[in-house]
Design brief:
Structural class: alpha+beta
Number of helices: 1
Strand order of the largest sheet: 1-2
Distance between the termini: 30 Å
Order of helices and strands: EHE
Radius of gyration: 13 Å
Shape: elongated
Strand content: 25-35%
Largest sheet: 2 strands, parallel
Number of strands: 2
Length: 43
């Protein structure tokens, strides 16, 4: 489905952050400031 373009999981990602930013993101996750999932991409 992904190869055919029917499924696009990248549309679910709202923001990418590094590990240092994840602390703040976890502390503020109840505020729903970003639509979609926040993903830690740098460690």
């Amino acid at each position: 489905m992904m190869l055919s373009g029917k499924l696009a999981p990248e549309k679910l990602i709202g923001k990418t952050i590094n590990l240092e930013q994840s602390i703040d993101a976890l502390m503020n996750m109840d505020k729903f400031e970003v639509a979609g999932v926040t993903v830690v991409t740098e460690f």
